[in-house]
Amino acid sequence: MDRTLIQEILEVVEQAGIASAKLTGMGLKNEADAAAVEAMRERMYKIQMQGRIVIGEGERDEAPMLYIGEEVGSGTGPGVDFAVDPCEGTNLCANSQRGSMAVLAASDRGGLFNAPDFYMKKLAAPPAAKGKVDIRKSATENIEILSQCLGIPKDELVIVVMDRARHKDLIKEIRATGARVQPISDGDVQAAIACGFAGTGTHCLMGIGAAPEGVISAAALRALGAHFQGQLVYDPAVAQTSEWEGLTKEGNLARLAEMGISDPDRIYEAEELACGENVVFAATGITDGLLFDGVKFEKDCTRTSSLVISTLDNTARFTTTVHIKDGAQSIALR
Fold it and tell me: Please, which residues have CB within 8 angstroms of residue 97's CB and are 6 or more apart in sequence?
């Protein structure tokens, strides 16, 4: 990978975000996702690279585009691995709620953990708490550590947790410390990344979410020097999701073994989930969110707000792009 790819990667998420945003609020989550997938893939194929999808829309027989293992790009140039989520928060997009975005992580070949389509226990925290909080510790212990590291009273800490039945006890424990809980319905990638920036009002992400999105979060937080840990969840009794109805703990362990994961209880650090020498994270808001605005359609232009974080030049770029329409006659400054 090199710096010349950063602009093209930005355009990939911009195009996916615009395509999906055209269906915002229409209750069409599958259609919004499909539009983002097609736009992302089309732009990827224009890049001079030997790209490969390592985390995508599913296995080849399940997904016609951006499937795991699909080769993207021109076929010449640097080898790049991608973890993509063209419309992260499809329900948010469909219902015109905050936090949906088009997102990806990219790295040198072999630089991203090929996460199985499982669940993952996650812990994200600011740079000041990196290596001090630990996913092995209780929520109570980690909140005490966070308070000390950040110099913030516990009752001013905001902990983001997915609003799921499996988190009932976790939420109760967090509130017992005096800390505040911010439940979210979907889209924990943006919440995790918000932990890497001061001033967002988000201090930590705890709980269980999708494993592939954990890799994308890890890439961004590694580039920011922030904290991220993940541990795969394979027990249906822990995941408590209807998607695993009929599955067993033993069956899931066998699936992981088939995927080459010999230690299912391993705790992964950000540097293991995104281990490449060069790592780039890019996201464009589909709807307004904590980090950036959603797509804005205007008479003569379309505006996108994005974030690109890169270890290639140690930058986090917040970018607003004005996509000018043909025949435009009046483009507002803001």
Answer: 89, 91, 185, 287
